[in-house]
UniProtKB/TrEMBL annotation:
This is Secreted protein. InterPro entries: Dabb, Dimeric_a/b-barrel, HS1/DABB1-like, TAT_signal_bac_arc. It comes from Sphingobacterium paludis. Residues 39-135 form the Stress-response A/B barrel domain. NCBIfam families: TAT_signal_seq. Homodimer. It comes from the Bacteria. SMART domains: Dabb (SM00886). Pfam families: Dabb. SUPFAM superfamilies: Dimeric alpha+beta barrel.
């Protein structure tokens, strides 16, 4: 049984599921950036070794341009957290962005947006690797 159908059947069967349903509805009503059906676009950046502080500061302007694109629901910039070193943890990147979108159509608009493409052309000189992870929330 698919997870979504399972959750619906549980909602009919028990009161705990009705609590889950009401929490989901409340999150969506409040404009929660992590609502069911939203897309979470996580992008990790590995910068070139030896770039100056000035170049790194210039690189951060890349994010300032991206976050102005209208199809974005929310935009966050981060650096690796100082979590406990474990085999499954990869903190080798220098920056990441977490961007949420309300739909796949919004992601597609963002990916093809002239400001997005222009910013990549302008700032890609600063990175050696980029990894993208897209997730559709349940």
């Amino acid at each position: 049984m698919e997870r979504r159908n399972f959750l619906k059947s549980v909602a009919v069967a028990g009161t705990s599921a009705s609590v889950l349903t009401s929490c989901t509805s409340a999150n969506q009503a409040a404009g929660n950036e992590f609502a069911s059906g939203h897309i979470v676009h996580s992008v990790y950046f590995w910068l070139k070794e030896g770039i100056s502080d000035e170049e790194e500061k210039d690189f951060l302007n890349f994010f300032e341009i991206l976050k102005t694109i209208a199809s974005i629901h929310s935009f966050h910039v981060g650096k690796p957290a100082a979590t406990t070193a474990r085999e499954v943890v990869d903190n080798s990147f220098q920056y990441n962005i977490i961007v949420t979108f309300k739909s796949l159509a919004d992601v597609n608009t963002y990916e093809k947006h002239p400001d997005h493409l222009s910013a990549i052309d302008q700032y890609s000189k600063y990175w050696t690797k980029v990894a993208v992870r897209d997730t559709e929330l349940l």
